[in-house]
Amino acid sequence: MKIELLRRISLRTQIFISMILLVLLTCLLILVATFFQYQNESIDYNLFRLTRKESQLKKQIDYLVEKNDLLRKKDSVWAHFKEEFSAVIKIHKVNYSVFNLEGQPLFTSFLPLKIIANDYALEAEFLKSILTKSDGRVLEKNNDEIGKFQSSYSVLNDNFGNPYGVLFFPYFEDVSFSENELNTFLQSLYQIYLLMLVVAIILAYFISKYISRSLETFRKKIDQTGLLKENEKIQLKNTPRDIASLINSYNKMIDELEKSATLLARTQREQAWQEMAKQVAHEIKNPLTPMRLTVQNFQRRFSDDDPDNTEKIDEFSQILLEQIDTMSDVANAFSDFATLHKPKLVKSDLVEITRRSLEIFDEDIVEFNTSNDEIRLLFDRTQWIRVTTNIVQNGIQAVQNGQRAKVKVFIKKGQKNVKIYFVDNGTGIPLSIQSKVFEPKFTTKTKGMGLGLGIVKNIVDSHKGKIEYTTGDNGTTFVVTLKLQ
User: Rounded CA gap, 397 and 405, in Å?
Assistant: First the structure.
């Protein structure tokens, strides 16, 4: 569906849209890249601040531990210096907690929920992972009741590099400033990109117009080109080399097309006359053969002394007259097909005319129904009778020997048109000849000239209608559609 829609869009529009999409895509990619770059820089900046503050805290804690000689002292001793450790919070404006090597708290000012739920102590496995890491440090992202924040767990070492505790340091990012800065930056980009988009639209319009100018002229000429028309060559100046080559090819094609049209017209006329001559000759030969046999037979049987001469002459004359009538019918059929007069459109009742045209057939063979008792529209009554009788006659002849023929005729009125259905119970139309059903002179019967359905189609076409059919092993359905207005 998308490919079909793209084919319907003109080249100029495609060039215009492509240039606009290219600018939009470029702007979008730059915005996305800028956003992610800013995010990465923000993450690096906050990680740097976390590391710097953590380093300052370690130095302050090491100083207090050394000053108060807290190494290798009981945990209860740390409680006496709680005020000094709390003063660090005010000085650096951060929270932190200190644990011993068994994971028990020595000093706490802030703890995440998972540690509080573990009786304010670090889990053994987690503590082991911190102490065994080469850098003695673990970073975590937390989602607590107070919000999202980063935290670090790092080992505290004495002057000899021996661990004596674990520092927990939560770092809360101040995202308001960075978000404001990012929004301001993106707004500036939006304004620049909006200006770029306006400029791109103007440039794309003129560039696409310039590129497609020659192609538009070429397209109009091609639309006007026809086999039976007097075609004009394209004359354009200052065209690109590729377009000029295309125009030259088109002009050569026009020359060849004129030659082909002349040859085709002559060939079609000759072929039409040849085919018509063959058909006329074939149809005339059909009665000539029995006429010849009748004459020869009469010569053998005729005798001056035969008392039955009068009866033989009458029989001979009757046979010749029948064959002459057949030849006359052939001539009339071809004459009717060649000189089918223009329809005389008179507003009449289609239902009534159809019903009368079917009265010549046996009621047991033809069944007639209609959706409306009266349907009035413009049509030629005489020609419509020929349409009806021809289709019904074909339906009757399509039945195999020994089978009872049945043709159903049904008229159905719609909002804008009326459809007439002719349904027979014949053997159907073979697939190999379905494309030739409406061709003049085509027939699968041993009798007739094969002009019936050809005349029917010409009549329906002259009424600006349409005739279609569906066929199968159980019969064929012809549908004639006529406009109500």
Answer: 8
